[in-house]
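wait is this the right file?? whatever heres the structure
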């Protein structure tokens, strides 16, 4: 096989029917590389990817973390699950109440913006500069 491989590398003998023998010899020569590549891939595929904690090491529970977690989740225990509306009228009433509250909030923001003394003073100065 090494004779065929050497003759194939010189390219003088790779003509005509001898070409098939050259390709076969080159394939036999590279089969070792393919086998090595498969071995490396299998090693990487089968290698352990997770390393667990050492046995005997008990997890420590910090009291501060437990208290903070309990305090943060406590409101969820008090909440009742959301239920469906009893009727379409109840749903529309809730939308009207919500819309009214939002309207009052926006109106208060607009009034506060219009009643801002800095804005009024800027407008006065701007009017004085135009005169």
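ok assuming it is, sequence goes like this
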């Amino acid at each position: 096989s090494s004779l065929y491989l050497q003759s194939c590398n010189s390219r003088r003998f790779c003509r005509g029917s001898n070409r098939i023998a050259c390709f076969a010899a080159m394939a036999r020569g590279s089969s070792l590389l393919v086998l090595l590549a498969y071995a490396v891939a299998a090693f990487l595929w089968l290698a352990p990817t997770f390393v667990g904690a050492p046995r005997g090491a008990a997890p420590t529970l910090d009291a501060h973390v437990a208290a903070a977690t309990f305090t943060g989740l406590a409101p969820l225990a008090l909440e009742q699950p959301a239920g469906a509306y009893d009727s379409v009228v109840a749903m529309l009433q809730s939308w009207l109440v919500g819309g009214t509250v939002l309207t009052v909030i926006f109106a208060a923001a607009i009034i506060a913006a219009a009643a801002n003394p800095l804005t009024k003073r800027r407008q006065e100065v701007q009017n004085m500069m135009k005169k």
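The mean pLDDT is 78. so i think its the right one actually
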